[in-house]
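Board work, copied verbatim: RNA polymerase sigma factor RpoE
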Amino acid sequence: MPKLLGHILAPAAPAPVIEAERTASPRFTAGDAALPSASFDAFYRDTWRFVWRSLGRLGAPQWAMEDLFQEVFLVVHRRLPDYEPPSENADLAARVWVFRILRFVLRSHRRGSHRKGAPFHSDAIDLDAVPGATETPHVIAERSERVQLLYDLLDTLDSEKREIFVLVELEGLTARDAASALALNERTARTRLNAARADFKKAFERHRARDEWRLK
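↓ predict structure ↓
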């Protein structure tokens, strides 16, 4: 699977400095809530990219991204006083904890969208695909095509398989840590991950076969 993902996401040139990293993060607005504390500010700085990236990779459409992002961090803002980070692997623990919130928010929004008949499919901008200032148009176009292919392939997975695939294959969590984020036992998580990998590979092979047929 790493080889397959490497083929899809292989950079067309040395990795650029991502423009988004030189700008401010998406703005969180607390609204009527109390002003964010220093601990919230630190948590936000450490996790906002993970949250934004995960929302898109889990299928949030671009039109809903900002609202979903705000909702995730409103919940974080309320619950953070009760969160006790471990002394070791604090960054990983924070991602696992915030992913549980993100997952609940996204699933609730998806159910509401289905009831209203609103479209819900991946078209969000992946921060990892934001072009660097020095990239050529050719490199930008190739990178965009690869990211679009990734999203198209992710769209072939059901939500449960997609979640664990994103966490393990794209975010680099272990199956055990992904199981914790998804409230699964490790055996179930590994079974689901294997099924997700198989489905993703089949989808990629179908894509490649279509490309080869068009080139004949």
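Residues 11-24 have pLDDT under 50 and may be disordered.
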